[in-house]
Amino acid sequence: MDENLKLAYAEAVRGRNSGGIPIGSVLVKEGKVIGRGHNQRVQTKDPMAHAEIDCLRNAGRIGSYEDTVLYSTLMPCYLCAGAVVQFGIKKVIVGESRTFSGAKQFMVDHGVEVIDLDDPACIDLMQKFIAEEPELWNEDIGK
Q: Of 22, 54, 89, 91, which has the fewest Cβ atoms less than 10 A away?
């Protein structure tokens, strides 16, 4: 597994261990992690607290996002993809999109390079969560 994806995966596990949805994210600039986060919708009762949003909040104001790479264990949804496009992040690396196809085409259509690693550990983590908590998962994806 890619080193930065490992950090995002650790965030996903942290989120799951605290009663939430196992999605994690890290933001990297010039090879350094400058932000990390995990989905905290359940923990904070905040419907906007997706992993990528939490990661961007934790990175803080950094000026330009042009030379950053966002890692996420799962393909970003339209909310998070919108943030990627809004801030000019040009590269997103995801652990997987089998359990949720997300908004890949939206990002690509807006000039974002999206790399899907199809990582077995990320797939397994989400599949187990969806099987254990289908109602919570459906709430998270708006179904």
A: 91
